[in-house]
Amino acid sequence: MIERLKTLVTRAPGSPDLMIALVLVLTVAMMILPMPLLLVDLLIGFNLGFAVLLLMVSLYVLSPLEFSTLPGIILLSTVFRLALTITTTRLILTQANAGDIVRTFGEFVIAGSVLVGLVVFLIVTIVQFIVIAKGAERVAEVGARFILDALPGKQMAIDAELRNGDIDQTEARRRRGRLEQESQLYGAMDGAMKFVKGDAIAGLVVIVVNLIGGIAVGTLSRGMPFVQAVREYTLLTIGDALISQIPALMLSITAATVVTRVTGDSKLDLGRDIAGQLSGDRRALRLAAIVLLAMGLVPGFPTAVFIVLALVFGAASLAARTRSIDGEGEVASFKEGVGAAAETRGGAQPRMRETSQAAPAEAPAVVVLLADNLRSIAELQNLRSKLDASRTGLADALGILIPEVGIAFDPALGTSQFRIEVEGVPVEEGHVDPQRLLLCDDPVNLELAGIPAHIDGDAKSSTQIWIDVAHENSLSAAGIGYQNCTEVIAARTREVLARNAARFIGIQETRALLTRLEGRYGDLVKEVIRTTPVQRMAEVLRRLVDEGVSVRNPRLVLEALAEWGEREPNVVLLTEYVRAALKRQICHKYANAHRIVPAYLIERAAEDSIRGAVRDTAVGPYLVLEDKISEGLLERVRRIGANAHSDRNRPVILTSMDIRRFVRGFLVRNGLDIPVLSYQELASDFTIQPVGTIGLAGSFGSDSAPQSGSFPQGVVPAVG
Q1: Residues 547 and 599 in one domain
Q2: Of 591, 638, 662, 690, which is most buried by a Cβ count within 10 Å?
Q3: pLDDT of residue 677
Q4: DSSP secondary structure string, 626-655?
Q5: CA distance 636 to 653
Q6: β-pairing, 436-439 with 464-468?
Q7: CA–CA separation, 116 vs 108, rounded Å?
């Protein structure tokens, strides 16, 4: 038996569950069995020490969830303390002695007067019952109610973030578990505070029982004089009540500290948090010091005390000022470091960094690489301003954010060459001559003005015409358009940005757009987020911008997504519905000054052939045209493109909505950048002027307006 007991004692520290079981068994035993005085003193000391430990732990937790076992601890400690009260009550009534701790507490508090002891005990009990326990109970009750009321909304927010791709499944499960734990904690705390409140009430009942029972036992059973019995049993009763109420008071303070903890974004314990907020503004400390100094001048007040207090508050304000200056210095140093880093990364400075110095993680999305001999270009600052102007103009036209264009030098480039890279991949190359100007006008005008020119080849164009910079004044006087080397680079960069604009729209940019719009269209944004994940929104925006459709009016885009996002799972078809919502903007882009849109119509037979050539696969549908049909369509469209003189006069191609994207993709893959619209994208306040039809191979329509029978059903030659 003894060996088993030794084994049990040895295993106890490493088995918390076993220790809890032992405490519960001991608690029940204390209620039934008599205990020796030495063991009672040990248990009373343990009760006091455990209460102090709980109070200290509550001061260092950063969140109530870090002390989620507190409701269970309140239950165990309350039951243990009540069992200890029963044990001491038995000892008081049977032996008139409940141990050294109880007697010492009674003698210390009574201080020679029974009445003083009773008053002190009543004050402690009232403070614990009415102030701390009652307040903590109310805070726990309100906290539990608010947590439970907000639980559905928080769960919906987690589901929305998971659906939008902001968090993954693991993070969603962690947050749901935290919500569940939080609701359980506050619900349990609401009930656990009833134990603390009941413990205070039980303390009042126990002291009355001990007083009356003790005096009766002392006078009737032990033969004590009445005065001696009153003093002896009052001393023991008050000592017993205090060793019960003081741990209960600490437990109430612990519970109140936890339930009133407002963490927010703070990562500090309670003491540091309070000290930081009290000394956060040194003006408050200075005013407090002045008020204390003024109070010291009141006649009858201890002046020295208030002067000392005023000095303490003044010193605290000086210490707060020192910390503020140190913090500002750190912020200034941080800002200087950030500014230096930005100056190094930016391309606006005359001294440009070499390409080899660019860290891949910090490299701009778009970079213009220049040959070494172009370091002497008129002003690099001028090139930077022109690039920024091109970027800003394109961003305004498309309604999206275009990243800043970096400038760097590459010794590997040949003389006067430049290269434009997008996300580290070369997409454009060319050459410029600082001593020549590029003609941007009809060469006939140059011949009429008698200005000599140089014809040169280029990767972009095989018929570039250059003029010596010495003739710049003559070109300006004759009104002939031209570009200098910086303007050539800026124009080519704008073309690259326009072709790759869709690459600059992703989930991050879409999320930022929604955040900006929440202030103006809060309900609309919520509805769109509910019906359409952010990934699909980003894909729709990419497809729109890829065809040059401006999204400067995001309200129309959001309304279309809110209407069709839930009904149309296919993001390609969803984009078509969004284009239909933007039909006025699309028609305006291709209309002339008279709001007329010239258009070629694809004949019905050709549409049927294209529709029949669409093949469905696991990765999506794609177009497979016969060679004869595809060559005929390409030949006809090339002639259309050759006759277009500008974007405003360039005709569009009209076709049905279900095949529009296939026709557009077919043309783009074959190097033909001609806009293709569907009949659903025709706005009623613009006039569509058919200028011809596109049919199958060998049956092309004329450039004149087609006969009415050539139009699809529901389409007339003029839509006004």
Answers
A1: no
A2: 690
A3: 92
A4: -HHHHHHHHHHHHHHHHH--STTT--EEEE
A5: 11
A6: antiparallel
A7: 11
**What is the percentage of the chain residues whose pLDDT exceeds 70?**
81
192 membership: H or E segment, kind and range: helix 169-216
Using the 8-state DSSP alphabet, how is residue 219 labeled? I
Residue 154: exposed, middle, or buried by beta-carbon count in 10 A (0-12, 13-18, 19+)? Answer: middle
CATH number, domain containing residue 359: 3.40.30.60
pLDDT digits (tens, 9 = 90+) for 416-456: 888 998 888 888 888 888 888 888 888 877 777 788 888 77
Q: Between the CA of residue 512 and those of 399, 515, 538, what are the distances in Å?
A: 13, 5, 11
Distance (Å, rounded) from C-alpha 252 to C-alpha 131?
10
pLDDT of residue 711: 41
Whose CA is closest to 432, among 488, 368, 496, 491?
488
Q: Which of 446, 479, 497 is the last residue of a domain?
A: 497
Domains contained in the chain, number: 5
**How confident is the model over 341-384, as pLDDT tens digits?**
334 334 433 334 343 444 444 567 888 888 887 876 645 557 88
Helix 226-259 × helix 114-126 angle, to 10°: 20
* Distance, CA of 463 to CA of 316 (rounded, Å): 78
Residue 114 token pair: 């029974």
Q: Which domain holds residue 306?
A: 287-316
What are the tokens at 442? 């009809």
Helix (H) or strand (E) holding 409: strand 405-409
What CATH number does the domain containing 600 carry? 3.40.50.12790
The confidence score (pLDDT) of residue 111 equals 63
Residue 263 neighbours by CB under 8 Å, 6+ apart:
62, 63, 64
SS3 content of the chain, % helix, strand, coil (to 5): 65, 10, 25
Q: What CATH number does the domain containing 519 carry?
A: 1.10.8.540
Instruction: Find the DSSP H helices in 303-430.
Output: 303-345, 380-398
Residues 465 and 509 in one domain: no
Pairing mode, strands 454-456 and 596-602: unpaired
Res 720 pLDDT > 50: no
Crossing angle for the helix pair 507-517 and 522-531, to the nearest 10 degrees? 150
Residue pair 37/87 in contact (Cβ under 8 Å)? The answer is no
Q: Do 163 and 253 sit in the same domain of this protein?
A: yes
Give yes or no: residues 509 and 493 share one domain: no
The pLDDT confidence band at residue 97, using thresholds 50, 70 and 90, is confident
Q: Pairing state of beta strands 596-602 and 652-655?
A: parallel
